[in-house]
TrEMBL record:
GO terms for biological process: polysaccharide biosynthetic process. The chain crosses the membrane at residues 12-34. This is SGNH domain-containing protein. Residues 179-360 form the SGNH domain. Keywords: Membrane, Transmembrane, Transmembrane helix. The lineage of its organism: Eukaryota, Metazoa, Ecdysozoa, Nematoda, Chromadorea.
């Protein structure tokens, strides 16, 4: 009798240990999935991509539904989905940071507003082999991202609106975020006026061989006073020239400047793939997604200062990739509905793949 009871107890405790082990493993797995869902989701989107440097995870056999899902994912993650770790802050009181690289050729600076932070991962993939140091100054990088992401999460990928159209403030949910350009600031925006000096300080501190300016237009697209397009009397153009004149002495070889391009209608972007699937006319979709506003004024000024700068400056232009000359229209998504921009008007991971060849060629020819 005692022997039988002893065996029963041993069997019971063995079963209890197995049950506890299974329970612990199950709870751990659930906790991991809940806490690391974003990472798992990103891995699923990118793991089948044959090119390990490719950021978007888009495959040839994907559908409108895949586009709808990825477009939402890129907008949700926005800047956080394109972060390269390892940027070290070495300057007290300043937000710029350094990537130490294994190249032997150049010291490179990348700077501007949130579009700089948006580009830095792809840029490093294409250019780090030429650099021993890449220093980044993104005015409104992770701070902007945090507000944008929280706003989208709260509103189910709801709308982002800029108000007024010529302000550098972006309103996302209850967040008020500041975005400032390196070349100009609106007269009533003292915070951006101060940052104009910070951009000069940045280049003076870094003294790069090459510098790349990534910026979305705000002040540089301001309407001309009294419709007078004479640049010599235009206060915005004068401010831009003054900034360039302060930048270039601190850059040993060349400054590359991204030219302006239109914004998207952020209230509509996440409807594109759905509308394509439902058979809406392409012309209607193309018209609705593009906000032409004043980008041509920004291009006019930017191209003029680069011309005046001479051989020390060079334009980087995305318009040839975004504008279909045959159809005479901007196309901000591909035939499957994969967007080149997020709802916050940053380039999506798919947009980065569109412009990547520009930087592959550009950085390979640096001398």
């Amino acid at each position: 009798m005692l022997l039988s009871e002893s065996k029963s107890f041993r069997w019971f405790f063995k079963l209890l240990n197995i049950s506890i082990t299974i329970l612990v493993i199950t709870l751990f797995s659930i906790n991991f999935i809940l806490t690391r869902g974003d990472v798992i989701q990103e891995t699923v989107y990118t793991s089948n991509t044959p090119n390990l440097t490719r950021l978007d995870g888009v495959l040839p056999n994907m559908t409108y539904d895949d586009a709808d899902r990825l477009n939402a994912y890129w907008t949700q993650t926005d800047l956080n989905g394109l972060i390269e770790p390892g940027c070290i802050n070495r300057t007290n009181g300043k937000v710029w940071c350094d990537f130490e690289e294994k190249g032997k050729d150049f010291k490179i600076a990348i700077f501007g507003n949130s579009l700089t932070f948006n580009h830095h991962k792809m840029f490093l993939q294409e250019c780090r082999h030429r650099a021993y140091n890449v220093t980044m100054y993104s005015e409104c990088g992770t701070t902007c991202y945090s507000g944008i992401r929280n706003g989208f999460l709260k509103r189910g990928f709801g709308r982002i609106e800029t108000s007024p159209i010529f302000s550098s403030d972006i309103i996302v949910s209850n967040y008020l975020l500041k975005r400032c350009e390196p070349l100009a600031a609106l007269p009533d925006e003292d915070h951006c006026k101060r940052h104009l000096l910070d951009f000069v300080d940045f280049l003076e501190s870094v003294k790069p061989d090459y510098a790349f300016m990534f910026t979305r237009f705000f002040a540089t697209g301001s309407p001309f006073e009294n419709n007078n397009t004479d640049l010599e009397t235009d206060s915005t153009y004068k401010e831009m020239i003054n900034q360039i004149d302060q930048f270039t002495p601190h850059i040993k070889k060349k400054l590359y400047i991204l030219d302006a391009f239109p914004r998207t209608n952020s209230q509509y972007t996440l409807e594109v793939a759905k509308d394509l699937k439902n058979g809406r006319k392409l012309e209607e979709i193309y018209r609705e997604i593009v906000q032409v506003d004043t980008y041509k004024l920004a291009r006019f000024r930017t191209e003029s200062i680069v011309k005046k700068c001479g051989s020390k400056c060079e334009l980087i232009d995305y318009e040839p990739l975004l504008f279909n000359q045959t159809a005479n229209r901007f196309e901000f998504f591909d035939s499957k509905g994969f967007l080149y921009f997020t709802g916050a008007n940053h380039l999506s991971a798919h947009g980065m793949e569109l412009v990547r060849p520009i930087f592959t060629e550009l950085c390979n020819k640096l001398s």
